[in-house]
Amino acid sequence: MENVVVNVVNSGSDGNAYIVSVANTKFMLDAGMPIDKIRKANNNKLRDIKYIFISHSHKDHLKDMKELTNIGVRYIYSAGVFDYKDMVVCGTEQNHDITCYGYSLDFPEEHIMIHYYTDTAKININPNFIKMDREHYWIVECNYTNETMIYNDNHESTQVVLRNIRTRETHLSDNKIIDFFKRKDIKVNGVLFIHQSRLNFDKQLFKDKIEQQLSTLSYKIAKNSTKYIFSKCGIKELKYGI
Q: 45, 115, 134, 218: least surrounded by Cβ within 10 Å?
């Protein structure tokens, strides 16, 4: 049985939107893409989406909300613990240049937890909410590789250098995310890395670091218009329509 299915509508600075299914519950993580692309990624439907979890209000994460809310999709943009019928949610404030939240979602009947953290200088979680008897699947940002950023600081324009200063203060690097997953107080059964910078992320360098420091980690680097199936057997990747 498929535990968790994640449809990556789009991931990156041009828009972020993810459709996630856990058992009979379907929800979105951010909605930073046009509504027609979201509908296409969801088999030309919208009404089966129950919730949208919004990390922050930058336009690459929050775009066509009106039609979704008009058909009754409930959106969550808050810190705190919320008990819904099919899941319990813990939202925590993150480190960005505007108000930003990360979310851990607990599905007690399925014994699954989903964690969504993006656009933050570090992952702030509520350790008391982490239940070690669950399967834990993480959808988290790795925006830049540190060495690539340093190289670009020395070879790109002043504008790029200034933008990189902000990026370091508001986004997750490869080193930060690797250190996070080395922690002993969290559990990891699979990771989908999202929101890579086109300029500052080196895919092969990142994969080499994972192999050296987290060799047993089951992970994928998100591709647009791609579906990921998470289970105890690992992560399977499928293009739409397959």
A: 45
| Domain CATH for 131 | 3.60.15.10
d(CA 222, CA 205): 16
* Rounded Cα–Cα distance for residues 209 and 178 (Å): 8
pTM: 0.96
Q: Which residues form the domain of 196?
A: 4-239
232 Cα distance to chain centroid = 19
The encoded tokens of residue 92 equal 């925590």
The whole-angstrom separation of Cα 126 and Cα 92 is: 7
Distance separating alpha carbons of residues 137 and 3, to the nearest angstrom: 10
CA 182 to chain centre: 18
CA distance 230 to 112: 11
Q: pLDDT tens, 40-63?
A: 999 999 999 999 999 999 999 998
| Count of structural domains within the chain | 1
Provide the β-strand partners of residue 144: 173
Give per-residue pLDDT as tens, 154-206. Answer: 999 999 999 999 999 999 999 999 999 999 999 999 999 999 999 999 999 99
CB-based contacts of 167, cutoff 8 Å, min separation 6: 143, 144, 149, 197, 200
